[in-house]
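Dear H.,

Thanks for agreeing to be a second pair of eyes. The structure we're designing against is below in token form, covering all 216 positions.
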């Protein structure tokens, strides 16, 4: 199955260059382009069957960081990779806080874009080398080990994790079913399994326990 890619970029020529890079690979299909964050959100409302968004930062009307925050709240299953010229720590930090799954500089070549998209789909966090170094400097903090971390960690399937992540965003069963393209009945079955594995009785308990055990 081909990965569905969307691009948010206000510079027509840069967007065209990225689309040309994507066209080299048979496992990608380019779905649509937006000239700013607000337009991207509007297009997703019409069609959110997207796997990865390549997101510029500085755009008119709504920048990429704000758009990423909104998209990750509403469609947490969509991966967002920042594709930008900005390599300053402030933008890196804000993008990570907004929920960005990766951070690449626009100078990246076609082969590395391909590699990065596959990496993010497999739950990696692709970053240009210079960005990775700055991110490490930003995020390097002493680890605090909670007393209860010695307890054996609950194992959820990838689909259960997807459902639980969407539950944590406050979405209802029908919204989750629509986002994940499965029936609401299947969602209910996944949630029953999640409650059983976590030994909880409601959504709030499930989300709190999952966060405490770093499952989401």
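And this is the sequence the design step returned. I haven't edited it by hand at all.
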């Amino acid at each position: 199955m081909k990965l569905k890619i969307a691009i948010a970029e206000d510079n027509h020529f840069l967007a065209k260059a990225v689309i040309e890079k994507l066209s080299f690979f048979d496992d990608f299909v380019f779905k649509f382009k937006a000239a700013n964050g607000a337009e991207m959100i509007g297009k997703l409302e019409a069609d959110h069957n997207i796997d990865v968004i390549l997101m510029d930062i500085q755009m008119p009307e709504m920048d990429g960081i704000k758009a990423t925050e909104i998209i990750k709240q509403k469609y947490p299953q969509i991966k967002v990779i920042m594709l930008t010229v900005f390599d300053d720590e402030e933008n890196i930090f804000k993008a990570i806080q907004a929920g960005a799954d990766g951070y690449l500089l626009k100078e990246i070549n076609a082969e590395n874009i391909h590699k990065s998209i596959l990496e993010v789909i497999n739950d990696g966090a692709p970053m240009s080398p210079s960005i990775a170094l700055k991110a490490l400097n930003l995020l390097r903090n002493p680890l605090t080990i909670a007393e209860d971390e010695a307890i054996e960690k609950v194992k959820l399937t990838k689909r259960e994790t997807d459902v639980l992540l969407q539950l944590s965003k406050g979405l209802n069963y029908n919204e989750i079913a629509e986002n994940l393209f499965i029936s609401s009945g299947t969602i209910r079955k996944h949630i029953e399994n999640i409650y059983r594995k976590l030994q909880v009785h409601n959504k709030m308990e499930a989300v709190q326990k999952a966060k405490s055990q770093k499952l989401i």
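Two observations from my side: Confidence is low (pLDDT under 50) at residues 142-151. The longest helix spans residues 184-198.

Warmly,
E.
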